[in-house]
């Protein structure tokens, strides 16, 4: 029985029927190798996870060293050194406080460890409710925060929610900051960031005024790499804080160097972040999620209020510490900025040549190309997006596809990608579009 046959026979169709037709045998750096020995340049990073590259030797060494000491003892029951060390590290790098450029003193921010981004968002919402004593949540249309019932309740995407309602009450949605397809029919910058200012009416009209938190992705990843204007977050945060709500920033996909800073909100001055959620790039592929909160907010949770049996697994925490060190010491944020600028510029040149590309957007190495069949009507081109993914794969390059209409080609390579590899990806994309 082949690996593909085994998957089809024993995995749920929701997984098996969506798998790409390659069987991965190994990976190293930016290269994925299949069981037939064919190598691929990975420009998707396992959905923006292996930011430091596949199987980085320093990260693997840290994980092996921890494995020899301790695999599991329930970090919610016993003290484990490496778990505390990671929490201390996050207290020093997660940008909380009155502006995103001012970090609280190490020890002032507190973290909770879990296994995934969905769990991190669930826990963050629970903490916000306990701290504020309020019960409602505001999120965004086209946002995505996980696949549990709680996180799907704050996900603004019918395709992710279908066949599973009704969802939790007490959730209101603001308009997406989607400039290419503005839900308000306006154009940036003359719009005066109306999508952010609309949150006033969202609270006034859609809620009972009992809002605990506003949950937002700095870039809406699954929504199609929707990149808000720089002014959006400060305006939205100010409005929500004026209504007594906390700001929960979902950096599950944008965190750990993906946008060219350790966290995307560091691009924005004058922003008060109350709770940050993270996963994906935190541990280079080892399953780990976390939410980090300002200390006065974190104190709202008492022992027993919220736990996770596998959360804070020692091996994953050791990998995360090594991963953060690699990102910092190998200057991967700087490389993400430089290579991202090259890729975005190259994609915009392709946009001039190929009418199929309606929009190019993103930041750092989180880039989306929205494909349309007609630039005037902006009719989405999801079939073409899947065809491009397939033909890029045939050319030895792995890319992703997403977006609310399934028409966005996603370029999210490891942050160590080289200039030559970017040129190779752009050349293959040009050839494919032709």
How would you portray this structure in words?
The two termini are 38 Å apart. Strands 4-10-9-8-7-5-6 form a 7-stranded mixed sheet, with helices on both faces. Strands 11, 12, 13, 15 and 16 form a 5-stranded antiparallel sheet that branches. A 4-stranded mixed sheet has the order 1-2-3-14. The chain is built from 16 helices and 16 strands. It is globular. The chain has 434 residues and is an alpha/beta fold. The protein folds into 2 domains: 3-55 and 331-433, Aspartate Aminotransferase, domain 1; 61-329, 3-Layer(aba) Sandwich (Aspartate Aminotransferase, domain 2), CATH 3.40.640.10.
Give the beta-strand count.
16
CATH architecture descriptor text of the largest domain: 3-Layer(aba) Sandwich
What is the molecular shape?
globular
How many domains? The number is 2
Strands ordered across the widest β-sheet: 4-10-9-8-7-5-6
Oligomer: single chain
What is the overall number of helices? 16
Report the end-to-end length measured between terminal Cα atoms. 38 Å
CATH H-level superfamily title of the largest domain: Type I PLP-dependent aspartate aminotransferase-like (Major domain)
Arithmetic mean pLDDT: 95
**Residue share in helix:** 25-40%
Provide the CATH top-level class of the largest domain. Alpha Beta
CATH names the topology of the largest domain as Aspartate Aminotransferase, domain 2
Contiguous low-pLDDT stretches (5 residues minimum) are 99-106
What is the radius of gyration computed over CA atoms, rounded to a whole number of angstroms? 21 Å
How much of the sequence lies in strands comes to: 15-25%
Largest sheet: 7 strands, mixed
Helix vs. strand class: alpha/beta
């Amino acid at each position: 029985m082949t690996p593909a046959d085994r998957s089809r026979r024993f995995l749920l169709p929701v997984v098996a029927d969506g798998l790409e037709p390659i069987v991965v045998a190994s990976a190293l750096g930016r290269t994925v190798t299949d069981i037939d020995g064919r190598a691929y340049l990975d420009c998707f990073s396992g959905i923006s996870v292996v930011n430091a590259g596949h199987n980085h030797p320093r990260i693997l060494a840290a994980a092996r060293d921890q494995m020899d000491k301790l695999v599991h003892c329930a970090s919610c029951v016993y003290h484990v050194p490496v778990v505390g060390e990671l929490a201390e590290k996050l207290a020093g790098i997660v940008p909380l406080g009155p502006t995103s450029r001012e970090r609280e003193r190490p020890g002032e921010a507190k973290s909770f460890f879990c296994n995934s981004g969905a769990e991190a968002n669930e826990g963050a919402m629970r903490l916000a409710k306990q701290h504020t004593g309020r019960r409602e949540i505001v999120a965004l249309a086209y946002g995505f925060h996980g696949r549990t019932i709680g996180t799907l309740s704050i996900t603004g995407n019918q395709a992710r929610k279908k066949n599973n309602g009704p969802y939790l009450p007490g959730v209101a949605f603001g308009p997406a900051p989607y400039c290419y397809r503005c839900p308000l029919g306006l154009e940036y910058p003359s719009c005066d960031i109306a999508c952010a200012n609309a949150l006033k009416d969202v609270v006034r009209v859609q809620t009972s005024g009992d809002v605990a938190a506003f949950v937002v992705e700095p870039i809406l990843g699954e929504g199609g790499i929707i990149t808000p204007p720089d002014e959006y977050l400060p305006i939205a945060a100010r409005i929500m804080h004026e209504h007594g709500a906390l700001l929960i920033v979902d950096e599950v996909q944008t965190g750990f160097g993906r946008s060219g800073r350790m966290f995307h909100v560091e691009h924005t001055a004058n922003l008060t972040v109350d709770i940050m959620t993270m996963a994906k790039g935190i541990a280079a592929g080892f399953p780990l999620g976390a939410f980090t909160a300002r200390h006065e907010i974190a104190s709202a949770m008492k022992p027993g209020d919220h736990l996770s049996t596998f959360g804070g697994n020692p091996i994953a925490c050791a990998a995360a510490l090594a991963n953060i060190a690699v990102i910092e010491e190998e200057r991967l944020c700087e490389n993400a900025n430089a290579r991202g600028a090259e890729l975005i510029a190259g994609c915009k040149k392709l946009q001039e040549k190929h009418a199929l590309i309606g929009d190019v957007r993103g930041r750092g190495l989180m880039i989306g190309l929205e494909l349309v069949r007609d630039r005037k009507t902006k009719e989405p081109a999801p079939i073409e997006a899947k065809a491009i993914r397939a033909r890029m794969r045939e050319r030895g390059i792995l890319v992703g596809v997403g977006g609310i209409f399934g028409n966005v080609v996603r370029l999210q390579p490891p942050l160590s990608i080289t200039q030559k590899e970017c040129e190779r990806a752009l050349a293959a994309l040009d050839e494919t579009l032709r």
